[in-house]
Specification:
six-stranded antiparallel sheet, 2 helices
Length: 154
């Protein structure tokens, strides 16, 4: 079996800001039906000989990721900026070097503070399921908690 990672260099240096040599800055979502604002992603490690994938996401000032859930677990480390996150029924202030675990099938969303971008590393399984967006009923249940409603209204 050929080695799919043979042409990937062992060292890719950081370039301007939070970008790396040979790593493409990609759109956050491929489809247009998932609501988000001002988010990009970079796949830093995705190799056949690794069980996981390490990605870097950056949310522009005041932007946010999609409110979603899925079966796979996330491990997140904030590397720049400040903001807030929703994980399940908990809203938390977040900043550099904070670690966030997102269990499977847990609603989650990240929001950048208004004055600065929020950047984070995200570790996931190499093979994972697709995100699920909340139904109107599920969104109403989330919004029944005032702190979550205030977070979602950002």
């Amino acid at each position: 079996m050929p080695d799919a990672t043979k042409d990937v260099p062992n060292l890719r240096r950081q370039e301007d800001g939070f970008a790396w040599q040979g790593v493409e800055r990609l759109a956050y979502k491929q489809d247009g039906d998932a609501p988000f604002r001002d988010v990009s992603r970079q796949i830093l490690f995705s190799r056949a000989d690794l069980a996981g994938e390490l990605r870097y996401f950056e949310i522009g000032p005041g932007g946010h990721t999609t409110l979603e859930r899925h079966g796979h677990v996330h491990g997140v480390m904030i590397v720049r900026g400040r903001g807030r996150c929703l994980v399940g029924s908990e809203v938390s202030e977040i900043g550099p070097l904070d670690l966030i675990t997102i269990p499977g099938w847990t609603w989650h969303q990240f929001r950048a503070a208004p004055g600065e971008p929020l950047g984070f590393l995200c570790l996931v399984d190499a093979t994972r399921d697709r995100p699920v967006l909340p139904t109107a009923e599920e969104l109403a249940i989330l919004r029944a908690t005032p702190e979550i409603a205030a977070f979602l209204d950002g």
